[in-house]
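Exam prep: given the inputs below (a chain plus inosinic acid), describe the expected output before reading on.
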Amino acid sequence: MHTLILATRNQGKIREIRSILLGLPLEIKSLLEFPHLPEIVEDGSTFEENALKKARNIFALTRSPTLSDDSGLEVFSLRERPGVLSARYAGEHVSYDANNKKLLAELKGFPVDQRRAQFRCVAAFVGDEIEKIVEGVCHGTIIDEPRGSGGFGYDPIFIPDGYQTTFAELPLHIKNHISHR
Ligand code: IMP
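Solution:
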C-alpha cells in the first residue's frame, strides 16, 4: 500500500479527493495529520504556480508522494475574478459565506448571461523523479441567492450546466462526477 499525502487542510477538498480516489490501493493522509508542517504560502499568480509550490514543498518535507489542488471560481464578466483569490476574496481568514456575499453583491442586477462562470482546479502530483500537473474545469452560472447545504466554498451559488440545482444541493457523488476536481 502506497501512502499519498494531500497537500491541503481544506476539509471540503479532502472529503472530495478521498471520495474520488476511493478504491485505489492508497493510504491517503492530509496535512490535518501533520499539524507540525508549515502552512505553504500561496503567493503564485496562477493556479499552476500555487499547486506546484504546495506539492513540491510538502514532498520535500515528507519525502512521500504528494498531491495538491489549487482551485477557484472564475466569473467571466468580472475578468475571471475571484480566480486565485477565491479562498480570500472578502479578506484573509473569512468565511465561505462572506466570500459568497461579496461576489453576489458585485453581481447584483447582472442578467443571467453575465453570470457565467467556471470552477477551475489544477492538481499537481510530485514524487520521486516525477512531477505531473493536470487541470479540470466545470462551467455554470452564478445564481442570486445561496441554495443548499452540501459541499463547500462557492457551491451554494453555482449551478453547473445541465442541472437546475446548485453544487451544494447535489449529492457528493454527482458533484464529483462532473466537477472541475
Ligand atoms: P485554494 O485553497 O487557494 O485552492 O482555494 C480554493 C478556494 O476556491 C476554496 O476555498 C473555495 O472558496 C473555492 N473552491 C475551490 N473548489 C471549490 C469547489 O469545488 N466548490 C466551491 N468552492 C470551491
